[in-house]
């Protein structure tokens, strides 16, 4: 199916919230990892979200140049074309964009989508993240408030981060106090005061409840998914809305238990980012292939090797399928398996 239209993306998120599941959002950095996500989602019968970071976009453009907007557009064009062959619907998203990268990442992509919509088409990306977690909350929300009308005009969705996710992802690194890892109700109220509850444009909020990017040992991170319910309930009481007024995003979920993920989803998470685990699944399978076929991929003792073994397509297919398995696991963990608007 083609990439989701704005209306289809909204339907995906609305359905997830109504039915109590979340869509996995997979970071990709190559055509192979993108194809792996499409394969895994198809095998699971799940719609989903495919996203690219500044670093991933840099890599798409060519690792010897710095042209992340070009890389992101190349990713999107490739995705728009190859997704037509798969019987599921996916939305395209740009992940973590800190303040220094707005000018050469999100803003050029917004301009490209504005031109596409002006010409009668759909936005190239269905959502963009502004990551203001490294600046004071007031500045974070001021910038979000400037971006949101542009997103609304092209029928796209903004993602904001309110709080701090620890660890590091693509150069965005946070080392602060433990208190900074937990969004407060006051922070969420400030967000609603600045951005509204949809009338100024739709947005998703990555509230933090102890999340950390990357790999960490069990016990080092204290997730408090119950905090999300406290915040949702507090907002509903203050503004007189229905339950779970915010669409929430779960960042830094590697190593989380099934129970923690389920509780977060029950409290309004509709999107969960997946990166570290799929990276490992992809690379681990290549390592295994190389060990098992070392005399084929290497010209040992003056030999000729085995072209069929060292052909990048041979180990590439193995890696894509291994990553696709991990993609499928994510859909089952989040409840999106079998959930597709194209079904």
From TrEMBL:
Pfam family, one: F_bP_aldolase
Active site: 95
Sites where the protein binds Zn(2+) 2: 131, 161
Record's keyword annotation contains Transcription: no
Stored Gene3D superfamilies: Aldolase class I
Sites where the protein binds dihydroxyacetone phosphate: 214, 252-254, 273-276
GO cellular component annotations of the record: cytosol
EC number: 4.1.2.13
Top-level taxon of origin: Bacteria
Assigned keywords, A-Z: Glycolysis, Lyase, Metal-binding, Zinc
Cofactor binding, per record: Binds 2 Zn(2+) ions per subunit. One is catalytic and the other provides a structural contribution.
Residues holding Zn(2+) 1: 96, 213, 251
Cofactor or coenzyme needed: Zn(2+)
Catalyses which reaction(s): beta-D-fructose 1,6-bisphosphate = D-glyceraldehyde 3-phosphate + dihydroxyacetone phosphate
A GO MF term: fructose-bisphosphate aldolase activity
Matching InterPro entries: Aldolase_TIM (IPR013785), FBA_II (IPR000771), Fruct_bisP_bact (IPR006411)
Pathway stated in the Swiss-Prot or TrEMBL entry: Carbohydrate degradation; glycolysis; D-glyceraldehyde 3-phosphate and glycerone phosphate from D-glucose: step 4/4
GO biological-process terms attached to the record: glycolytic process
Annotated function: Catalyzes the aldol condensation of dihydroxyacetone phosphate (DHAP or glycerone-phosphate) with glyceraldehyde 3-phosphate (G3P) to form fructose 1,6-bisphosphate (FBP) in gluconeogenesis and the reverse reaction in glycolysis.
NCBIfam families: cbbA (TIGR00167), FruBisAldo_II_A (TIGR01520), PRK09197.1 (NF006628)
Family the UniProt entry places it in: Belongs to the class II fructose-bisphosphate aldolase family.
Protein name (record): Fructose-bisphosphate aldolase
Species annotation: Agromyces intestinalis
């Amino acid at each position: 199916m083609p990439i989701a239209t704005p209306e289809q993306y909204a339907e995906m998120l609305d359905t997830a919230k109504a039915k109590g599941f979340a869509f996995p959002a997979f970071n990709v950095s190559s055509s192979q990892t993108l194809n792996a996500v499409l394969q895994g989602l198809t095998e699971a019968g799940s719609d989903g979200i495919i996203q690219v970071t500044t670093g991933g976009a840099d890599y798409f453009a060519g690792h010897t140049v710095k042209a992340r907007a070009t890389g992101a557009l190349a990713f999107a064009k490739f995705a728009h074309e190859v997704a037509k062959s798969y019987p599921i619907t996916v939305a395209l998203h740009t992940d973590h964009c800190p303040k220094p990268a707005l000018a050469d990442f999100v803003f050029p992509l917004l301009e490209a989508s504005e031109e596409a919509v002006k010409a009668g088409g759909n936005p190239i990306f269905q959502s963009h993240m502004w990551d203001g977690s490294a600046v004071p909350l007031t500045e974070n929300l001021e910038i979000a408030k400037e971006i949101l009308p542009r997103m609304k005009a092209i029928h796209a969705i903004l993602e904001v981060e309110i709080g701090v996710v620890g660890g590091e992802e693509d150069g965005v690194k946070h080392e602060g106090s433990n208190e900074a890892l937990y969004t407060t109700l006051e922070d969420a109220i400030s967000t609603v005061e600045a951005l509204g509850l949809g009338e100024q444009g739709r947005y998703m909020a990555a509230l933090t409840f102890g999340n950390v990017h990357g790999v960490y040992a069990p016990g080092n991170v204290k997730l408090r998914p119950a905090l999300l319910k406290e915040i949702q309930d507090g907002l509903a009481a203050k503004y007189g809305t229905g339950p779970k007024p915010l669409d929430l995003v779960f960042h830094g979920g590697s190593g989380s238990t099934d129970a923690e993920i389920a509780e977060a989803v029950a409290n309004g998470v509709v999107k969960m980012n997946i990166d570290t685990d799929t990276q490992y699944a992809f690379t681990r399978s290549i390592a295994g292939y190389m060990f098992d076929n070392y005399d084929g991929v290497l010209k040992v003792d003056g030999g000729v090797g085995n072209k069929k073994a060292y052909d990048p397509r041979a180990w590439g297919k193995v890696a894509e399928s291994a990553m696709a398995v991990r993609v499928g696991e994510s859909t089952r963990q989040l409840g999106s398996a079998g959930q597709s608007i194209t079904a």
